[in-house]
Amino acid sequence: MAAILKFLAAIMLFTIITKGNCQCTLDDIKVSQSQTGKTVPNKQEWRLTLNNTCICTQLGLKLSCKGFQTVEPIDPSIIAISGDECTVVNNGNPFYGFTTLSFNYAWDTSFPFKPISSQISCS
């Protein structure tokens, strides 16, 4: 009887762990912004931070950036702007779970970046 209970407990634990690893969504990408206190050609500098709050890796993360403007160059190895979308390049690396990525830009006000798509990879 004890062996059966141990077996069932192991199955339940495995199910919980496996299910928990595969429930990541685009909502697990948190966007925060703050002023840096600097000005770049008379525009306020902003620091955007993306945080992957899930254990799973997010691949091909794209942000909505229609109308985004900056007077400060952004390193294209971090983020690539194409039309209404910004692709998080992250130096060619996946956006691993529980990691952050940041970049600065300069404009009059903060821009409402919003995650719009990604591929979730759990192992």
From TrEMBL:
Source species, domain of life = Eukaryota
Q: Name one Pfam family in it.
A: TPD1_C
Q: Which positions are tagged coiled coil?
A: none
Q: Which UniProt keywords apply?
A: Signal
- Please give the biological process terms from Gene Ontology that the record holds: cell fate determination
Tell me which positions the record assigns to the signal sequence. 1-22
List the protein's name: Beta-1,3-N-Acetylglucosaminyltransferase family protein
Protein species of origin:
Citrus clementina
